[in-house]
Design goal:
The complex is a heterodimer of chains A (86) and B (151). With 86 residues, chain A is of the alpha+beta class. Chain A contains three helices and five strands; from the N terminus they run E-H-E-H-H-E-E-E. Chain A has one domain: Roll (Ubiquitin-like (UB roll)). In chain A, 30% of the residues lie in helices and 27% in strands. In chain A, helix 2 (31-41) runs antiparallel to helix 3. Classes of the chains: A alpha+beta (86), B alpha+beta (151).
């Protein structure tokens, strides 16, 4: 399963990238499952993000979504802190 | 309807004139947001505004469409700046025209309230000795929730 992953603002700084195409070792059904998998495979920044996930927002294919929403192969998944524009 | 996300500054009055020149316009209401000089007690050096290209435009279009559906307005323009902004700089403009003022006032407030919570922009404040990402304001969430109750 492949995902286009985007981070913005503080998460972009913390993870050191804003965009990455990721190939997952196994399929995941939701952003929450994606975080669980990454926290096992990719280390402490992901464990922290999994723990603090309710402080962050998620968008699937550029639409705001919940952590439990359905994701599919090839989707664009963005994770970011609450919006502060205007 | 139009949405512009840009680095450069812009003229609110020029857009107001453009909208008022159209047929059947009896009212133009505009909201202008500016960079404050102080963040808490700190003098701000500058602000960095980041956004999510693609989703930003999509989210703003959705907000405009909802406003056009809810109120009888003739046009809505949203302009939001990104990149480095200095204290007192213009950040955002929402300009709404209608036949009578009431619809334009309400639609303008609706658009800026939803922009604050649904359009993916993030502000970082840089002062002399520190920098921090701006956190969401409870007041902004309450304002949006109140609109949802009215729906």
């Amino acid at each position: 399963m492949k995902l286009k992953l985007l981070f913005f603002a503080s998460l972009r700084e913390q993870f050191g990238f804003s965009y990455k195409e990721i190939t997952l070792a196994k399929d995941v059904r939701s952003p929450a499952e994606f975080l669980q998998l990454m926290s096992i495979e990719a280390g402490k920044d992901w464990i922290k993000l999994l723990k603090d996930r309710n402080l962050y927002k998620v968008a699937i294919n550029q639409n705001l979504a919940s952590w439990e929403a359905v994701i599919n192969d090839g989707d664009e998944l963005a994770i970011f802190p609450p919006i502060t524009g205007g | 309807m139009a949405i512009i996300v840009q680095k450069d500054t812009f003229s609110i009055s020029k857009i107001c004139t453009e909208l008022s020149d159209k047929d059947n316009v009896g009212a133009v209401v505009s909201f202008s947001g500016y960079v404050r000089e102080f963040s808490k007690d700190k003098q701000l050096k500058y602000l960095e505004i980041e956004h999510y290209p693609g989703m930003t435009e999509k989210a703003l279009e959705e907000i405009e469409k909802k406003a056009m559906k809810n109120w009888d307005v003739t046009d809505i323009r949203i302009v939001h700046r990104v990149g480095r902004l200095l204290p007192k700089d213009l950040i955002v403009g929402v300009i709404v025209s209608s036949i009578h003022r009431s619809n334009a006032f309400k639609a303008c407030e609706f658009v800026i309230d939803f922009l604050k919570t649904d359009a993916p922009f993030w502000k970082k404040e840089i002062s002399e000795d520190k920098e921090n990402w701006v956190v969401e304001r409870r007041e902004d969430i309450i304002k949006k929730t109140n609109w949802n109750k009215k729906d």
